[in-house]
Amino acid sequence: MGLSTPRVAPSDASQWDDETRALLEATQPVAGRPVLNIFATLAHYPKLLKRWLVFGNHVLFKSRIAARERELLILRTGWLCRAEYEWGQHVAIGKEAGLTDDEIRAVAIGPDAPSWNALDATLLRAADDLHREQCIGDATWQALSAHLDLKQMMDVIFTVGQYTLVSMALNSLGVQREPGVEGFPQIASGAPKERDDD
């Protein structure tokens, strides 16, 4: 699902109070760049933005999952939720975390793509389980526990949950990609492929 125009247009600097401006400046990795559309849109509700950023910062910067594995989870969640804005932003972040172009394309194929190692496939399968059943299945849980400790496994759940929430907001508000930000790969032109091995 993707709206071709915003339902809620991003706010602009003339609408921000000092606290909101400070919050938005803190989201910018490079000073002077425009505020991303997601943040400028959520700035219509500064108290929500402020509280959401605390949790978002844990997931993105303080979780116990390695950055590359975290980005696999986020990209798969963005793909499953049809959140092209999220996909595009995290393609760039995923590349910084070490994902290759081929791996990013394979995220859209899912955990059964032949290129994945055991941990990568299991992380993608966990994202699929959570998306489809709102629960990591027993077999996936056991496979995941061979690679991750309990806190890391909890971070898996909360990462997928956070980016499902973000995807719902992006899709419902109609947040548009910034110029030059990648969209879905060619494989993503149709609906996500469901697993048929249940």
Report on this structure:
The protein is mainly α. The longest helix has 24 residues. The relative contact order is 0.16. It has nine helices and no strands. It has two domains: 54 residues, no CATH class; 135 residues, AhpD-like. α7 packs across α9. Helix content is 59%, strand content 0%. The protein is globular and about 50 Å long.
Provide a brief overview of the structure.
The chain has 198 residues and is mainly α.
How would you spell out the order of helices and strands? HHHHHHHHH
Which architecture name of the largest domain does CATH use?
Up-down Bundle
What name does CATH use for the topology of the largest domain? Answer: AhpD-like
Q: Which outline best applies? A: globular
Percent range for β-strand residues: under 5%
What is the makeup of the main sheet? none
Tally of individual domains: 2
**Number of beta-strand segments:** 0
Classified in CATH, the superfamily of the largest domain is AhpD-like
* Helix run count: 9
Question: Oligomer, anyone?
Answer: single chain
Percent of residues in helices: 55-70%
Uncertain regions spanning at least 5 consecutive residues: 193-198
- Mean pLDDT across all amino acids: 92
